[in-house]
Amino acid sequence: MTPWEIKGREFNNCNCAYGCPCQFLAPPTYGTCEAAMTVIVDQGHYGDVKLDGLKIGATYKWPGAVHEGNGEYQLFIDETATTEQREALEKIATGKDTDDMATMWWIFNAMCPTQHATQYKKIDAEIDVDARTASSSVEGIFEVEGQPIKNPITGADHRAQIALPHGFEYAMAEVGSATTNTKGGSIDLPNNKNTYAQFAQLHLNNSGVIR
After folding, report:
1. In terms of Cα–Cα distance, which of 79, 89, 186 is closest to 139?
2. CB atoms within 10 A of CB 3
């Protein structure tokens, strides 16, 4: 197993209500799970291959809860990555060289029998975890805008967090709202409009979350 480690920022938007039932082992709000993910790797390596500054995008879709399987995904890797970096990021983001059930990517890969071909695209992303703001785009594929949840009475920003001391993705996530517009690719996400958004600092390696 090739040793790898990444530190970075994650921005996810799924079709569920704020809070995302998956985080609490409950069924999806509307029965299906549909999501767009963007990760900025601030620092990272796969063996001797440096991954600093690269970005990953992905779309996912399941007909039911993630753990029920029968899902599909498509991965997008920063077009600026070298051949070695592309191979490294694809292995990490598809759960390769990872202990069983150690990361969300291992889980997603296991629960998706349909795995569309990886594409190498221009990825633009800005993620401010503490502010719960983010924007990300994979050229020709999707655009996502995230913001804090707004108090329906005062309009003020509302802050909520999810802590998962034994989770396989993050230690703490900030909760917000986001909208995804899909324009191409193999997976359409028409239901992600002002729905759950997740902003998190990631620190992962072959064995999962580093705490």
Report:
1. 79
2. 12
Cβ-contact 184, 154 below 8 angstroms: no
Whether the Cβ atoms of residue 18 and residue 199 lie closer than 8 Å to each other: no
CB environment 153-183: b (16+ within 10 A), e (fewer): eeeeebeeebeeeebbbbbebbbbbbbbebe
Low-confidence ranges of the chain (pLDDT < 50): none
Say which residues have a Cβ less than 8 Å from residue 142's Cβ, sequence separation at least 6. 36, 57, 59, 180, 181, 182, 183, 184, 185, 189
- Determine the residue type at 128: D
Q: For residues 36 and 55, is the Cβ–Cβ distance under 8 A?
A: no
What residues pair up with 119 in beta bridges, in sequence order? 76
Q: What is the pLDDT of residues 71-109, one digit of tens each?
A: 999 999 999 999 999 999 999 999 999 999 999 999 999
Q: Where are the alpha helices (DSSP H) in 34-183?
A: 83-93, 104-110
- Residues contacting residue 174 through CB under 8 Å, at least 6 positions apart: 129, 130, 132, 159, 160, 161, 198, 199, 200
Tokens of 200: 């998190």
Q: Are residues 141 and 55 in contact, defined by beta-carbon separation less than 8 angstroms?
A: no
- Location of structure tokens 């999501």: 35
